Amino acid sequence: MAVYRVKQFVNAITAKITEEDLNFINKYLDVNEIELFNKLPVYDRKHCINVAKDIIREIDEEKFNKSNKDFNYKTLIKAALLHDIGKSHKSLNPIDKSILVLLNKFTKGKLKNYTNFKKVHVYYNHGEEGYKLLKHRNYSDKFLAVIKDHHKSDISCEYTKIIKKYDDKN
């Protein structure tokens, strides 16, 4: 776990958005979504791009679309790109996140009781914040649930499980 966190920290502080990334974003997000996406700091945008690209590398589009009539592949990639949009509410820089991860570990999750602090609130509730940010737009309930629930431990929705798997990997 420690090596994963060090890698995550290094990736965050060295994150850059490439021309290829911009083309990728333009392929899956519309103008309004791009504007919203760009409110995230570079390291969170790059993380979301990495999550989406890992899904593309590992999940076949044709197979996915055949077995999922109500949530197509493009929607899955869009959800991957927007899954952390609630972090635009209050940004956590890599140092903040590292401190919160350590505090969460040392307090055995009791840090959750201090969500009156904005950074702690965003750390634990950015899914809910993303849901609130997107619920007035034209998204399906399933799409919104993926955004809202991607950090829950008791996930029954297959699409949310996919986002969670690749989010945890990145």
TrEMBL record:
Domain of life assignment: Bacteria
Pfam families: HD (PF01966)
TM region positions: none
HD domain location: 46-167
Protein name: Nucleotidyltransferase with HDIG domain
